[in-house]
Amino acid sequence: MTTIKAYGASASTEDLKPLDIERRAVGKDDIKIDITHCGVCHSDIHTVRNDWGGSSYPVVPGHEIIGKVVEVGDNVSNFKTGDLVGVGCLVDSCQTCPSCQKDLEQFCENGATFTYNSVNKHIDGTRTYGGYSTMVVVNKDFVLKVPENLDPAGAAPLLCAGITTWSPLSHWKVKKGDKVGVIGLGGLGHMGVKFANALGAHVVMITTSPEKGKDAKALGAHEVLVSKDEEDMKKHQGSFDFILNTIPVGHKMDPYINLLKIDSTMVLVGAVEPMEGFHGGGLIMGRKHVAGSLIGGIKETQEMLDFCGEHNITSDIELINMQDINNAYDRVTSNDVKYRFVIDMASLKD
């Protein structure tokens, strides 16, 4: 075991502060990563504050990890020292259930091991600690190759915000010429706009805030639809091939369901909480679908990173020092960031 520096919370009511944590020795199937950057996800905040229940303290968050390989185990052949790599929301799964066999480790039927606030049940039974730390040791099957042409800081949020929006666009086969709506211009929404644009879709940013229109178009949206404008919503009714809904809280869905074409789908990726009721007729009269999507499996996440490398796609970020994390949490909950915070881990090492 090796003792390293980290930042974490000892209780749901406490700020994050410096901690010393232990990492396991590098096993034959492991990769040791020197962490250079880690994104700040709203899930980090929910877990630190125990909003979803089940947090086990101390919590060291962070599942948007970028770093350099510094050591590999004897069975590792596809990574070498110096490689730029990433670690997302998963660090292990059973690898044998039907979901894992389909490269859907996020839906592991025996319970995936998450990057933090989880248990290394297949390794040593210890708690997992995330990327708000100087180093991590991860099984080779859950380490991702990051294209060297990408800015490492901007690439960090791809490991969660990126794959969360890429996965539904890929699964529902969004293609060139499709009319795609992206609801909400935040950490998820801005990635959805970039991906849909790069896939060749006609992208419509759907927002309650007209002032976000300029930013949306700069990110790749072709049109902006203000959802509070009843006439504009009526004009777009029944015209969307696909809608990516990134709203993070419960909301009325009827207005957005009405935008879908016959046989088209709206996918929820943001609201992990009860939703308001909606009228069944909106789905029945058009054979429309409302679906949900989590992150993606390791294979799909690698495909997303490769696509980003080909199209030079990264997140729009604000780089912060580790010591500024508590202020960053307050700003995230106040929607005061464009569009993701990323921690420069050199600040922790120093």
Q: How many domains make up the coordinates?
A: 2
- Characterize the overall form: globular
* First and last CA, distance: 22 Å
Strand content range = 25-35%
According to CATH, the homologous superfamily of the largest domain is Medium-chain alcohol dehydrogenases, catalytic domain
Describe the structure.
- By secondary structure, the protein is an alpha/beta fold.
- It folds into two domains: 2-160 and 315-349, Medium-chain alcohol dehydrogenases, catalytic domain (Quinone Oxidoreductase, Chain A, domain 1, Alpha-Beta Complex), CATH 3.90.180; 162-292, Rossmann fold.
- It has helices at residues 42-48, 98-101, 152-155, 161-171, 187-198, 213-219, 230-235, 254-257, 281-284, 298-311, 325-333, 346-349, and strands spanning 2-8, 17-23, 30-40, 65-72, 84-87, 90-92, 113-114, 135-139, 144-145, 179-183, 202-207, 223-226, 240-245, 260-268, 289-292, 317-321, 340-344.
- Strands 3, 4, 5, 8, 9, 16 and 17 form a seven-stranded mixed β-sheet that branches. A six-stranded parallel β-sheet has the order 12-11-10-13-14-15, with helices on one face.
- A hairpin with an 8-residue loop joins strand 1 (2-8) and strand 2 (17-23).
- The mean pLDDT is 97.
